[in-house]
Structure formats: structure tokens, C-alpha cells
């Protein structure tokens, strides 16, 4: 079974559009770009297109100066702008900028990427807050296809704060037993072969081949790698789909769900901020 993130995201975005049409205003998402990285630029444009399609107001700020003080000033201004409901600073940042200092500067109530320490702590303690978009999108995709999580063994390959570590908490909250693997894990294959659910987010093209996957497992490929002009994942899709019970493709898998989850976070931020005024 192919877990079609593109189709699922379109359905969820149609629902979002109906909700936005019922509002007396429009959620406003502001994205700040600090580099001209082609992948980041493409991704930000995709976010803008999706946001406008469902009726959001979308603004992209290009801050390529590398001046951290100016960037923090811009974030402070956006924090205090009641017309702005979601703020996202696209990663990776320009060289020389302090990621922690920049993320800490964003108002947690507008931190729709879920990277502020307050939102990270909320996820850890299972309290209300913003969940990073990719992990949120993955859970929503698994739920759409009725993939059971409770009691299952989930193996996550990759321990980034963007995907791997948030997935630990989301899956644990859904009563899965979670193992985290990384670059120093000994005998990776032994771990992945025990997985009912395998989430791979390493940025290493085709790291996971068919012999790493237990027959009947669900495989979620978060990787997006450009090799010889073609987008491929961290999983050898053509080989693994013959073994797995369910698998996400690249593209049309996790990527579209990430954008949709970001929009859902922005709508949540809008509704929460408006309820406080």
C-alpha cells in the first residue's frame, strides 16, 4: 500500500479552506529566508502557494545580510504585529547565525514550526503547543490510512530535533514502543528488522534497502535527496515496496504533509491569538 501524502494533503487542505472561508479574517504566515539555498527557496515557494490557495495571507521576507541583530529586530517586530499569526524562519540559516538564539526570539504563540523551547517542552510533557510540521504530518498520514500505533514497535533512524526526537514523543504518546537509531548505532539492520513502523530521516540516499525491512512493516521515508537530477528518499522505494505492507513515496509522501501540517499549525495559532483579544 502506498501512503499517498499528496492526495491526503489535498483533502486536508480542502477542509482547511472551508474553515478559513468561515472566519472573519485570514491567518497570516510570515516566512523569513536568510539564504538563497535552492532547496529552501523551492520549499518556501511551495508553502506560499499552498497558503494562498486556502485563503491565508502569506509573506516572505528575504533577509540575506547575515546580520543577526537585524534578524532579531525583524522577529521582534513580527512578534508584536497583531496581523501576523505564524512566524517561520527557514532552516538552515545563513552561516554565522545562531540557530538557538534565533529560534528563542520567536514568540512561542506564533512559533508554527514548533522549535521554541517552550513548545519543545510542551511536546515532551504532552501539553498544548505547536508540534513540528513534519512529525505532525507523519502522524496524520498514518492515521488517515488507519496504521495502528498502539503496542507497535517503532524504529526511528535519525535523531534530529526537527524530525527524529519529536517523533519519539508523538509515537510514545500513542503507546508505541520506540527505538532511536543514529550514526553511531551498532548493527542498524538488527534494529530496523524488528520494526513494525520504520521512520527514516537521515539525508542519506537509499540507506535503507529491502533487507533492512521486516515483511509487513510500515515504512515512512522522510529523506529528500537529489541524485543525478532525480529526487529520491533515504529508502530504496522500488525494492522496499515489495517487502513493506505500507510505504511513503518520494516525492508525494511526507513533503506535502509537512506543508499541510504547517498550515494547520498556523490556523491553530490564528484561532488561539484571536481568542485572546
Task: List its traits.
277 residues, Rossmann fold, 2 domains, 15% strand, globular
Describe this structure in words.
By secondary structure, the protein is α/β, with parallel strands linked by helices. It folds into 2 domains: 24-108, Rossmann fold, CATH 3.40.50.10860; 133-254, NAD(P)-binding Rossmann-like Domain (Rossmann fold), CATH 3.40.50. It is built from 10 helices and 10 strands. The longest helix has 22 residues, at 254-275. The radius of gyration is 19 Å and the shape is globular. The termini are far apart.
What would you say about this model in short?
The protein is of the alpha/beta class.
Instruction: Give helix % range.
Output: 40-55%
Shape category: globular
How would you spell out the order of helices and strands?
HEHEHEHHHEHEHEEEEHEH
CATH architecture of the largest domain: 3-Layer(aba) Sandwich
Low-confidence stretches: none
- What's the total helix number? 10
The radius of gyration computed from the alpha-carbon positions, rounded to a whole number of angstroms, is: 19 Å
Number of domains: 2
Query: What is the CATH superfamily classification of the largest domain?
Result: NAD(P)-binding Rossmann-like Domain
CATH topology of the largest domain: Rossmann fold
Question: Which strand order does the major sheet show?
Answer: 5-4-6-7-10
Major β-sheet annotation? 5 strands, parallel
Report how far apart the termini are. Answer: 46 Å
Strand content: 15-25%
Q: How many strand segments?
A: 10
Furnish the topology, listing elements before pairings.
Elements (H helix, E strand, L loop, with lengths): L4 H17 L6 E6 L4 H16 L3 E6 L5 H12 L6 E4 L9 H7 L11 H8 L8 H12 L8 E5 L6 H10 L3 E5 L6 H5 L4 E4 L17 E4 L3 E3 L2 E3 L4 H4 L5 E2 L6 H22 L2
Parallel strand pairs: 1-2, 1-3, 4-5, 4-6, 6-7, 7-10
Antiparallel strand pairs: 8-9
